[in-house]
Amino acid sequence: MKKKFKDDEFEEMIEENVAEEGKFDSSKKYKNLPLVVIAGRPNVGKSTLFNRFLHKRRAITDPTPGVTRDPIKEQAFINGMPVMLMDTGGFKLEREPGSIEAELDELVVQKTIDTFKKADLILLLFDAEKITGEDEELVALLRPVWNKVMAVINKTEGGRREEEAWNYLQFGFEKLIMISAEHGDHLPELMDEITSRLDFSKVEEGEEIQQIKIAIMGKPNTGKSTLSNLLTHSEASIVSDYAGTTRDVVEGSFTYKNRHFQVLDTAGIRRKTKVKEDVEYYSVTRAIKTLDRTDIVFYMIDANDGLTEQDKKLIGLAHERGRGIIFILNKWDTQNQEKKTFRKAENDIKIMFGHMEYAPVVAISAKENTGIAVLMNTAMEIYNQLTRKIDTGALNNALKSWISAYPPPASRSANFKMRYIVQTGTNPVSFLIFATRPEVVQSSYLSYLKNKVRSDLGFDKIPVIVEMKASRKKWEQRERS
User: How far apart are CA 105 and CA 186, in angstroms?
Assistant: First the structure.
């Protein structure tokens, strides 16, 4: 009887294999990786298997068929060997003619077929329960690349349905691998089979490349995926007029003026009352979580619609995290091109976000490829500000000049002295001011100091965090102690 591995045993086995291999380090990035594509009809467990190999929830999983639309890929280690693993959208045949969903399904299918040509190995995933017309159609499409295909029968945990699963031999497979992606059954055998069929001779350790991470966010149908594809010179994200097309966070990379960028194309954020599907809920949650791993937010606004209260909430989250933010007025080609039109739109944004005057506003047309140079130059300037470190001596000289130019309001109840200032962080940028009685410092005076930090020290396009702490020592005394 073959052993069934529990999750913790499976993780330990992975770690042992990595240690034994010794050739590749799972903490590093590699290039020239063999591409392993997971394919199959909807709801056979592709995303569950994808997440299992990555040891994290990268792809959204849900019982609803057709959850994954855009192909998503990431480096994974299988038996200690690095591969580029790709999860694809489900292959659907049953469609309602003329419907929006049918149009999307066709785009998903075409995107999936395109990945087959690039793959080094295709894990063709089936559901053990029954063979469907979609399975048969997908097998037929894969005949030209049959030498790349590996048949994997999912949902056979504990040996159930294995007898029915043997029916898949009718397609001419030499071997069937029975697994349970959810429970981990027979995954070691699958991993052995995968690595035995791949060539790792061209894999090289990739150089450590510092990437500027950009999250493209906004309401549905504002042109996020169009901009993502334009920047990455790819069609990684499915573009459609149907709102809510993107569900998972789709990643891509590109270079601009010798700087390396990573783009995170996120799901459109709608009002909570309009988020009805569990799938969309997870998409929105994942989009918001990208704020924790991005440097700059490209916030897309349809120039024809303007901003709403819902936009304010998401932008507020980015502001609180200290992220760089650029308001992008997309579809600007549909607007009057006079300068006063842009100035009015810019002013409307500034009024709605009075506390975020620092955030630049850029007009573009992702469809017509206009305004992109201005956008990217602005992004590089923001990143330079996010990563700028000010010498402590220069900081304290600046603090003295600010206090001299505008002394704190004097009163018996609010008597305090500013001692010194230090920069405590970059990206997000933060400062800490030490004062004798920080609790009595008026918020208006703290705002004055924050504005001076921004205007005089070169942080005029990003949010800055300035906090206060009690100290009776002067800067010079602190240096000697």
Answer: 32
Angstrom CA distances, 48 to 13, 173, 184, 451, stand at 19, 23, 10, 49
- Could you give the CA distance from residue 398 to residue 450 in angstroms, rounded to a whole number? 12
* Residue that the structure tokens 């080094």 belong to: 120
Q: Summarize pLDDT for 155-167 with one digit per residue, the tens.
A: 999 888 888 899 9
Q: What is d(CA 189, CA 186) in angstroms, rounded to the nearest whole number?
A: 5
SS3 438: helix
Paired with 126 in beta bridges are 153
Residue with tokens 């506003």, as numbered in its chain: 361
8 A C-beta contact, residue 326 and residue 359: yes
Q: What pLDDT, in 10s, does the model give residues 387-428?
A: 999 999 999 999 999 999 998 877 666 778 888 999 999 999
The rounded distance, in Å, linking the Cα atoms of 460 and 433 is: 19
Question: Higher pLDDT residue, 247 or 366?
Answer: 366
Rounded CA separation 173/170 (Å): 7
Cβ atoms 17, 69 nearer than 8 A: no
Residue 143 corresponds to which tokens in the numbers above? 């005949």
Q: Where are the alpha helices (DSSP H) in 182-324?
A: 187-196, 224-232, 278-289, 309-320
- Under 8 Å between Cβ of 220 and 310: no
Closest CA to 17 of 81, 95, 110: 81
> What pLDDT score does 453 carry?
95
The SS3 call for residue 150 is strand
Residues in the chain: 481
Answer whether 185's CB lies under 8 Å from 5's CB.
yes
413's tokens: 């109840």
446-449, long-range: CB < 8 A, 24+ apart: 448/402, 448/406, 449/399, 449/402
Residue 428: cis peptide before it, omega within 30 degrees of 0: yes
Q: Which residues contact 251 (CB under 8 A, 6 or more apart)?
A: 72, 74, 236, 262, 263, 264, 265
Please tell me what DSSP assigns to residue 145: G
Structure-block tokens of residue 321: 């995290």
Contact 433, 468 (CB under 8 A): yes
Residue by residue, DSSP assigns 401-416 as HHHHHSPPPP-STT--
